[in-house]
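Is flavin mononucleotide placement plausible here? Inputs below.
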Amino acid sequence: MDRKKIELDSFNTDIFKILNKGWMLLTSGDAGIGKANTMTVSWGFMGTIWFKPVVIVAVRPQRYTREFMEKYDNFTICSLPEDKKEALSFCGAHSGRDVDKIKECGLTVIPSEYISSPGFAEAELIIECRVIYQNDLNGENFLDKKIISQCYPESDFHRTYFGEVMKISGTDKYIA
Ligand SMILES: Cc1cc2nc3c(=O)[nH]c(=O)nc-3n(C[C@H](O)[C@H](O)[C@H](O)COP(=O)(O)O)c2cc1C
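Reply from A.M.:
I modeled the complex. Tokens:
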């Protein structure tokens, strides 16, 4: 995939389309030693806090990927082209505890520039992030309690990871 480094000021994306509708791969690990896990995500945020550009992802306790997030403190979030939707479905329905999803989906791991977690050669967008803050959602803090019965019947509240954006690389469609 023909990606270029994109400066923040020129980054062009629709967060609702890319994440909530398009789905992305959240990957954490160490490309150098060939250890990484990936999973599909569609809940998340991109914005500014503490004067920094930040991506926030939300990971439930039972995800294998969470063990990697805790160990490596960094992650990539990648958008794949439309014809890779099957890979996204697979990575959102299987755990890395049971299957090597990266191999199974024929994805090619590539090293990142600033962090240990890899991206994928097939991605049209790769954002490298360094975790600077993490926080468990707390049932007591929900004003709309319906969200708890709808999303957390087993009290498996997400942990949110705030990742400072270290690098964005993408195809021309992500350049404003
Ligand atoms: C479209 C889609 C979006 C998802 N978004 C999230 C998410 O934002 N957070 C999360 O914890 N799980 C999410 N999941 C579920 C994980 O991708 C799924 O449980 C995956 O198998 C976890 O893999 P792992 O155990 O290897 O980490 C999503 C699944 C799909 C299909």
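Short version: The mean pLDDT is 96.
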